[in-house]
Write a structure and sequence with these properties.
- The complex is a heterodimer of chains A (about 200) and B (about 260).
- Chain A is an alpha/beta fold.
- Chain A is built from six helices and 14 strands.
- Chain A starts with a strand and ends with a helix.
- The relative contact order of chain A is 0.17.
- Chain B is about 35% helix and about 25% strand.
- Chain B contains eleven helices and eleven strands.
- In chain B, helix 8 links the parallel strand 9 and strand 10.
- In chain B, helix 1 packs parallel to helix 3, helix 8 packs parallel to helix 9 and helix 9 crosses helix 11.
- Classes of the chains: A alpha/beta (about 200), B alpha/beta (about 260).
- At the A-B interface, helix 1, strand 8, strand 10 and helix 6 of A face helix 3 of B.
Chain lengths: ~200, ~260
Amino acid sequence: MRVVLVDAGGGNIGSVRYALQRLGVEPVLASDADTIRAADRVILPGVSTAATVMGRLRELGLVETLRGLRQPLLGVCVGMQLLFEHSEEDDTPCLGLLPGRVRRLQAGEGVRVPHMGWNRLRLLREDALLAGFADGDHAYFVHSYAADVAADCIAGTVHGREFAAAVRRGNVMGAQFHPERSAAAGARLLANFLQMDPS
Amino acid sequence: MLARRIIPCLDVRDGRVVKGVRFRDHVDMGDIVELALRYRDEGADELVFYDISATPQGRSVDRSWVERVSARLDIPFCVAGGIRDVETARGVLHAGADKISINSPALERPALIGELAEAFGVQCVVVGIDSIREPDGEWRVRTHTGDPDRMRAPRVRTLDWVVEAQRLGAGEIVLNCMDSDGVRRGYDIEQLRAVRAQCTVPLVASGGAGEPGHFEAVFREADVDGALAASVFHGGKVRIPGLKRFLRERGVEVRND
């Protein structure tokens, strides 16, 4: 299986690569359209900001490539936020593969931003990406922006408000948390992504 | 609900974990990856690696061990010590660290915080603060605390620095309370509460843990997001599985393993 990690300058690309290696898969780091189109699985990792990563994808000419993919695509953290139409972070138009907008988390009494640490997943519907997960499983989050819970949301998490922790529409998937740093739960999500039948 | 984090801190020198005896004679404790994985298996939520050879000697972090840790570890980790510019930080983050922590260099040149936040996002930028109560009753910061001969006392109030560091782009604050550090009589609740009141980003308590009840107290009374400790974990005085069970039974939200 050819697994491609889209190299758009995300700081966590090395950690995601190691996580895949721990599952016995050697991913290809790529920033060119042909390699990405030829993959069986595509992962878009992302640390830093929506504007930075979108800008980089535009420079590399990858926006239409990602929009046109038919194989399973997994966005991680900022990579997941980019799947939506728009991010409030620097007022950034995103890939628009999923309907919805990404908004800033609000700090409040007992609610700190960035949302940093292990939080519980609330499973919203059954999905192969979350096979083996139980309601209340913990995953590791680090972010200040998040997408609202909407039709494509398969798991939510509460920090102040509830937001999308994992999403799926057909072959477009995302995890707001970091599977590469979420211990056994994270490895499970990545293994599910690699093993699932494309829809 | 966000779990309260339990964070062991490991001192690293030349790629090995060491334990300091009165700041000077360091005892080798073992291979960094082996110890990291042992703490992960026991239920640590995050690890901090403090490169103790870096700041006092004016060196920056050796990145090879960061990569070795990242390849094997599947929980987040932070690297502290010797990071004083964006390029060094980039190297450490690209080697796989999730966060970098800066202390003395941030006080020497506060703009560094903003530069790091701009380059990598605030979520990567931890500001560590060593704080002590001075005779006039004010808490003030100390720098270069790794070496008693080089420790300095800039006239900066801890609470002012906490506010300023957040304004500049700190995504997390680790407050090390020097008066309670190493004494094992509990975290400095009074100071941590005062800092908590000024802190809208995550706050991690450091210094003073001696028994499970100290962790419960600091989470309940100072509302910190994480509690960092070193010697009680390394010496086996507090074991993480038992600590988490203790906290869970008392209604403190901790991560399930």
